[in-house]
Amino acid sequence: FDSRPSSAAGARASSPKGRPTSAGLSRTWSGTGTGSSSRPTSSGRLRRPPSPSRSPSPPGRPGTPHSPSKPSPALSRRTYLQECDIRYTVPDPLAFNTGHSSKMAAQSRGLLDIDLLTVAATLHEKPEVEEVNLQSNLSLTDKGMVPFLNSILSAQHLTDSLRTLSIANCKAVGQRSVEAFLMLTESASNLRSLDVSGVQIGTKLQLALCQVIGDHETLQSVRLAKIGLGGTCITCECLTRILSSKSNKLLDVSWNVFNQKEFQAFGQMIVNNNHLEHLLIDNCAGYMVGHDSPVSELVERLAHDQSLRSLSMCMNRIDFRGALVIEDSLEGHDKLSRLYLKNNPLGILGLRSILRLICRASSRLSKLDVEGCYSGAPPETSTGGKSVTQVFSFTNPGGKYELDLTRPYHRSLCRMLYETGDRFGVMPDTAFLNLQYSNPPYSHPSQDSIGQYKVLREGILNFTFSVESALESKWAKIPDSDYIQFLNKHLSTTRFTPHMAKVTPLLASWKIIDGMFLEQNAFLSALACDFNMTVPVLEFMVKSSPACANETLFRLLPSIPSEGNSFFLSMNLFPKLQDLFTTVVRMEDFLEFNPQNATGHYKLDLENSTDYAVAQQLLLLDRWESVVNKRNERFDTSQRGNKSQIRNESHQGRFLQLSVHTLTDWALPESGEFQFDYTTCYRPQRGEKPLSDMLWENLMIYVYNSQCRPADRLKVLRSISHHIFVSAMHIRQMLGYFRNPEDREEAVVMFWTRVVDMHNAKVFRVRFEKQEDIVRLQERLGYTAFFPFLQPENAKFHLNFAVYDQRLAVCAFVQLMVREKVGNIKEPVYVRGDGTIDPLPLGVPRSWGDFKLCPTAGTFSGTYVCAPEDRQFELRKQLAIKYGYQPSEKVLVDDVMWWTGLTEPPADVLDLLEFFISRYNNVDEVFCVIDGSADASTGNGEITLREFEEGMRKMECRKFKGPDENQRFGGIFRYLDPGGEGSISIGEWRVLGQLWNEFDLTIREFVQFLIIAFGEDLKDAWEGINESDDGGDGGDEEDSITEAEWFEAVKKIGYFGPARIVFALLDGSDDGDISINEFQVLENYKPKQPKPK
Which whole-number Å values give the CA distances from 246 to 205, 209, 229, 239, in the listed order? Predict the structure, then answer.
């Protein structure tokens, strides 16, 4: 074309003088297929004035339009240019127009009708037309399309040579063009590829088009996207005719709309066809809110297909439900290797199903497109107001299910559960419990020829799925207390492990989405929860996407086995040390989690994959401990009678007890805040030895000298807590190093299951002076776990009958009362469920000793007291063994450190004890002095009220001097006479000895603290305390310290014990001050140094 002048100029140069040029000529198009056209006239007809001196070339002449011989490219160009010149069109340098190609690849060239008519006028000279591609020429109409297609149709040699025909996205063409297209398709016996996508085809022609396609013997690729197919009464018949073709390998019906029924028929026809290899059904789902995507009906039937190699289902609103159907149906497909799911709302759950599919050994998938699939709808958690599990969890599939078998998702979910039972080796009758079917009878489905379960397709199926029996038998050899071994083996077994041969497709899918941060985050979250990863795979993912390295490690570290060196090697994959420190902060809960001592409070963000891993492991531990309790025939002491170790559980601030009875009925979501308390059922076995006192003391010194926050000190102690056992005295000593009640509470909770002498627990329980502190511990550890079985004396309680374990505690108190002494429960108050108070005219009902006869509503409060001679020690041990899981079989009365806290007796009793301590060696000595002190009486081993009053006066006790002296003596006497017999026995009197021991121990603990803080010389301690009191200015040895100054000083030096008691004992003169001389009394309480050998 470059060497040739413009067509108009060339015509004028060659024309004789006075002869009209081609610019003035016109030719009339009669409407036939071989005619030509020019610009339209005002009447709409295209015509050209006749040329009197020009006549057509005779037939048979080479180079003329009617020449049957094959023209040269130069001659083809000349002919085409002549036609352009005649029609006043600009030549298009297309290889087809110049004669250099038999393929008219004219897609997206902006052709007009006149351009197409120009080409049509030259078609009769073409020896063959192998391809006609007019895709996306939006200006073409019937005026140009019909003659062009008819020109090909009129030449048999052109029709026979045609291999590819496309008028895709020629949106302006009408019915006449479609009719011509159909005629050409039917006549082109060697046609391989057909594309009419984007052309709206009326209902009348749809069936004819589909019939032509179905009858064609050579078509291998058919594209019918966005032609208006679907939603009519003939859709199923159209699909049937299309898929009747035995030659077609590719079918694209994207951007048409099909409903559920049509997809059902479509899927069955694909299975019956058995020749189709590539299917594209993008954006075809006629979605209805609240229903599964109808494309699931088609996918479900593809399980029996044997020919498809690629499947594209982009933009079909496929969520996690549809993804599970895909996983269930395509996991055993023999040939499917490519799956395109772009821009579907799969979300994390759906993406997890697809990743499991590509990693299965039975799957042939090697390429996956999940771009734009990072978001998705939240999973359904309830049906009809009842919470049920409707989400499949590969790791923890147990729960309560309600399945509507008319839905493909629920059918696939049911099949997956049956396959899970097979995976764990559990028979259906054992795995499916409490089964109810709306159309009885129900029988478990069998497997078909491809191994898929033939689940029913109608009715409502309710059941509880459980594989606990498999866990119980499979892990029977694991010791009950080896929680880490259980978790490692369980997670390695139940989590999905990618097949070795399928790791490459998985990593290729990761590589494809490099730089797509939203897709990468969803990809990682999907892998984090259900997959077992290895260090080499993790290393590749980190190096292949450096920008996402920290996020990759953060999310996938929980999926790395904790055994061996894998976790250590994974932590070394962080690109920089700074990245490690930054990420560790986000993983704090995961890194600090101690499965061997999981008792504690948890507040987990389930969107954080590491927090999710902690929640997942705790739920598994809860199930394991229920198996252990069942194995050991332990009584259920859970909070709600559901055999769970988890208490006070809430999600997003809403208590789960309002919607689920057990957590096995609840599917762990992947968002929201999950908060709960966990109390393990583990207890130290008989013979376990606590840490030595010296080693524990050294440990406490390090805790005291640490510059860390108290919360951080507790975290360090938790990390080593499972390696040590402690005594009750150790716990008491530790409490003095924490100021805040919350930290002290956390310390007790942490070491609660590590105390070897729980029968002496009252030694440290008394350090919680406020009742609300005790209530918090009861709520966290459990009312039965924290129950004072062996020393219930002076225990105050306020219990709710509506809560299972609190009702159990009432039962235990009443059993003690009935066996030890009726009336031991003082000041009982029973408030019925309706809020009215029951006066209990006959006392506390003995029937409450039977748990089944206890009320299930209302509250009960009171205080339990018991005289030493009334104790039923064997009963107390039995209750401790049954309800507290304590190994108390061989505990003797003499093994118990009988104790009384300083907050239990009235203040007058403490004042009296302070008087005795300053004058006598022990309470037995005081008892002998008082017994027989009244006139005309001798010592008989009991003290009456009169003897007590006279004894106090003879001792010159002036602490109670005043008009109410006798009244105060009476209050003290009644406290020491809990049985109300009117006399105090030596055993009852020795309650003061328990208080005396508490006083003595408090002083010794304070002295021990001073030695740790200031050294062996107590003068240094006095100077330090006095200096703290003087604000750092230094103090004189002869100065005294007031009570207020004392409290401030001991607080500054870090002592958080009962400072008031210490002050009262040191203030021997009762003048409200402590002098240096009085302070020196502490020398008597210093620990004795061992003599050198």
Answer: 22, 16, 21, 14
Helix (H, G, I), strand (E, B) or coil at 214: helix
pTM for the whole structure: 0.81
Contact 71, 79 (CB under 8 A): yes
**CA-to-CA distance for 446 and 439, rounded, in angstroms?**
18
Distance, in Å, from the CA atom of 352 to the CA atom of 528, rounded to the nearest integer, reads 9
pLDDT of residue 36: 36
The alpha carbons of the chain give a radius of gyration, in whole angstroms, of 45
Please report, for residues 677, 734, 880, 988, the alpha-carbon distance to residue 749 in angstroms, rounded to integers and kept in the order given: 10, 12, 18, 32
> What DSSP line would sit under 442-497, residue for residue?
--PPPB-TTS-B---SSSEEEEEE--HHHHHHHTTTS-TT-HHHHHHHHHHHHSB-
Strand pairing of 193-195 and 221-223? Answer: parallel
- Predicted confidence band at 399 (pLDDT cuts at 50, 70, 90)? confident
The rounded mean pLDDT for the chain is 86
The answer on pLDDT for 312 being more than 70 is yes
Q: Residues for the chain: how many in total? A: 1093
Q: Encoding tokens for residue 705?
A: 């000298």
In 3-state terms, what secondary structure has residue 573? Answer: coil
The Cα 687–Cα 44 span in angstroms is 109
Q: What is the mean pLDDT of residues 855-868?
A: 94
Give strand ranges (E) for 293-398: 310-312, 338-340, 367-369, 382-383, 386-387
Pairing between β-strand 399-404 and β-strand 460-465 as defined by DSSP bridges: antiparallel
Which H, E and C letters describe 746-794, residue by residue? HHHHHHHHHECCHHHCHHHHCCCCCHHHHHHHHHHHCCCCCCCCCCCCC
Beta bridge partners of residue 1041, listed in sequence order: 1074
How many helices and strands in the chain, by DSSP H and E?
43, 27
pLDDT at 491: 87
Cα–chain center distance at 543: 27
Other Cβ atoms closer than 10 A to 115 = 25
Listed residue (112, 116, 154) closest to 132, CA to CA = 116
Average pLDDT for 426-443: 91
Dihedral (CA of 567, 572, 575, 576) sign: positive
What b/e sequence results for 681-693 when a residue is b if at least 16 CB atoms lie within 10 Å of its CB, and e otherwise?
Answer: bbbbeeeeebbee
Q: Is cis: bond before 839, omega within 30 of 0? A: no
DSSP string, 962-1028: STTHHHHHHHHHHHH-TT-SSEEEHHHHTHHHHHHHHHHHHHHHHHHHHHHHH-S-HHHHHHHHHHH
* Strand, coil or helix: 153: helix
Residue 404 φ/ψ, nearest 5 degrees: -95, 105
Q: Are strands 338-340 and 654-655 parallel, antiparallel or unpaired?
A: unpaired
The sign of the CA dihedral 644, 648, 649, 655 is: positive
> What's the rounded Cα separation, in Å, for the pair 818 and 845?
10
pLDDT digits (tens, 9 = 90+) for 658-687: 888 888 778 888 889 999 999 999 999 888
Contact 897, 835 (CB under 8 A): no
Please tell me the distance from the alpha carbon of residue 251 to that of residue 282, in angstroms, as a whole number.
Answer: 11
Burial of 156 (0-12, 13-18, 19+ CB in 10 A): exposed
**Region of residue 108 (left: phi > 0; alpha: psi -120 to 50; beta: else):** left
* Angle between the N-to-C axes of helices 741-751 and 710-720, in degrees from 0 to 180, rounded to the nearest 10: 0
Q: What is the pLDDT of residue 379?
A: 63
d(CA 1062, CA 1078): 12
**Strands 221-223 and 103-105: what pairing?**
unpaired
